[in-house]
Specification:
2 domains
Length: 107
């Protein structure tokens, strides 16, 4: 049976050990001694499952926001060199706002 990372993560240790029992892979050797975190990692390695959740952005243009972020970072660096405190504060606020927009639209 094919599993996803989320399905495996929701299972308890005894269920994960039952899955590992049926596998013949060096990553799951000694599965009876592994805790849930290590067992989950070994199962993902043995079953070739990606352990990281990939997010994507919907509803906004991610590339234009990333471009704006890069431009603001340059302004921030210039403000640091010029010791412009107000410019630095403004650029950090803008960065925070744009990053928040990206996080808000992640799925």
């Amino acid at each position: 049976m094919d599993y996803t990372f989320e399905e495996l993560k929701k299972k308890n240790v005894s269920d994960l050990r039952e899955i590992a029992k049926g596998l013949e892979h060096e990553a799951v050797q000694g599965y009876t001694q592994l805790n849930k975190e290590h067992l989950l990692e070994a199962l993902c390695k043995a079953l070739n499952i990606d352990m990281h959740v990939h997010h994507h952005v919907e509803g906004i243009n991610k590339t234009s926001i990333k471009k704006q972020i890069r431009e603001i970072k340059q302004k921030r660096d210039e403000a640091i060199k010029a010791k412009d405190k107000q410019g630095l504060i403004n650029s950090r606020k803008q960065l925070k706002k744009l990053r928040g927009e990206l996080r808000k639209h992640m799925v």
